[in-house]
Amino acid sequence: MNKFELKDVVELWPNRDENSYKGTFGKVGIIAGSIHMPGASVFCTKAAVRSGAGLTTANIPKENFTVLGMHVPEAMLYNREDNLEDFYEGLDSILIGPGLGDFDEDYLKTLIQKFKGILVIDADGLTHVKPLLKYIRERTAPIVITPHFGEMARILDVNIQEVINNQKEVAKRFAEENNVYVVLKGSETVVSSPTSTIVLNRGNTGLSKGGSGDVLAGMILGFSNRYENLTDAIHSAVFMHGYTAEYVSKFKAVEAMTAMDIVNYLGESMLHVKK
What we know:
Blueprint: H1 6-12, E1 27-31, H2 38-50, E2 55-60, H3 65-71, E3 76-79, H4 84-88, E4 93-96, H5 105-114, E5 118-121, H6 133-138, E6 143-145, H7 149-156, H8 160-165, H9 167-178, E7 181-184, E8 189-192, E9 197-200, H10 212-224, H11 230-248, H12 259-264, H13 266-274
């Protein structure tokens, strides 16, 4: 598949069994936010819930409990000071990185080595990818990384222009060599699995706002357990992120669009696609 279009999203959209329950659609965990950046955890947690995750738990500083609890009452809260192993036990997928700031590299290493589900690494989580590549390559469960051009350049230790000029080749090579899924974000987003690469170019400049990447990461997490095939889940999440921006731009100027608009109107854009 060289292109991923609206018809593909429609054809792949998972049916919901009438006898399903919250565990059917995935138990997901989010390690995001910090005392000074509580918003990042709100964006990705709310996006995961809106994307269809069955049960969502946010691992955040206890100081942020009130903020996240007010914005996403559907999510359960886990104190980051508590044991990491107890947090990930029983989860199907985990997102780590948005708004974390500086954190101990061993925290991510533990997840890579011991957590057996899908691991999505975004934002500040990407700062530790390069030194942990040996462990990433050894991992049998899927890893998804979601860098923008600058983050990808730092992982590869190359000039950012080299990434911009060779987006498809860079994502494809990194995915194949390290057995990971790469979502290389830009005006055109390149999605590369260990076996395939496509370019998605929906969306608009309204996505050029802080928090948009956090929303996409949360959407990928929420979609990840609703599809039988992870590649289909990632493609659909990336497509719907851009499609929702287009949907919002029909009644709101792109200059005024916010990351929370994408989350708040995701339900309407998804319904539009399903119809």
